[in-house]
Amino acid sequence: FPAPTPLTGPRPLVITGQDISLDILARHMEKQLPGWRPLRAQAGSLDSLIAMYRGEADIVSTHLLDGDSGEYNLPYIRKLLVGSSFVVVNLLSRSAGLYVQQGNPLKLAHWSDLNRPGLRFVNREKGSGARVLLDEQLRLHGMKPERLLGYERIQNNHLGVAAAVASGDADVGVGIEKAASLVSGIEFIPLIQERYDLVCLKTKDNESWIPSLVQLLRSDDFRKELQALAGYDLSRTGEILLET
Predict the structure, then answer these.
(1) CA–CA distances in Å: residue 113 to residues 84, 117, 119
(2) How would you write the pLDDT of the chain (244 residues) with one tens digit per residue?
(3) HEC states along the chain?
């Protein structure tokens, strides 16, 4: 039998995460990285890092708070990618906090308010940055997850959480400011500024495009497109935070 004809065409490059900034990034990469075809995967931060460790993702987005140090992402990346060479570069920063119903009728203002009896909560899936943020805040404030009514009620994205609160099916949920601006009938209570970073493994193939990715993040065209979207802090965009 003749040998099979090798496949030709752009090599797929998997980018994980749910933020709209990643869709913009993929579009710019497709224009500026010939030979590569960016593909989007809707996966949470922790699951994305595990996928990267398994070789199933090329660019991982992550926003994971380590409650003990107050540091975002790097403690998790160091532990999960042990033995690997990688680059961590900032994409943006954004506000995270609570979604509440319009007018904030229950006057929720702090993480500790989640301890109120009878408060109906809607949660994110395990492995998401929002779920890690909630669990760390519950731990730091001495609150038991099982005391939170609705802790096991899951939505798989920020918009789903916001919609559950807006419809009256829940009193409160955790998410980012951007999603709150897309759903009517809710208010957003900012409680923390989270750093949203990109992680790239320094494999033989990846090292050919990592410098171009960093240059793209720092480019005027990319930054201008992100600046047109409210709720993003781009003061550190393109900054290399760790390289091993």
Answers:
(1) 41, 10, 9
(2) 444 444 456 788 999 998 999 999 999 999 988 888 999 998 889 999 999 999 899 999 999 999 999 999 999 999 999 989 999 999 999 999 999 999 999 999 999 999 999 999 999 999 899 999 999 999 999 999 999 999 999 999 999 999 999 999 999 999 999 888 889 999 999 999 999 999 999 988 888 899 999 999 999 999 999 999 878 999 999 999 999 9
(3) CCCCCCCCCCEEEEEECCCHHHHHHHHHHHHHCCCEEEEEECCCHHHHHHHHHCCCCCEEEECCEECCCCEECHHHHHHHCCCCCEEEEEEEEEEEEEEEECCCCCCCCCHHHHHCCCCEEEEECCCCHHHHHHHHHHHHCCCCHHHCECCCCEECCHHHHHHHHHCCCCCEEEEEHHHHCCCCCEEEEEEEEEEEEEEEECCCCHHHCHHHHHHHHHCHHHHHHHHCCCCEECCCCCCEEEEC
Q: Which are the contacts of 103, defined by CB distance < 8 A and separation ≥ 6?
A: 187
Q: Position 190: which residue type?
A: P
Q: Hey, what are 35's tokens? A: 């030979």
| Residue 147 backbone phi and psi in degrees, to 5 | -80, -10
pTM: 0.90
Q: Which residue(s) pair with 240 in the sheet? A: 89
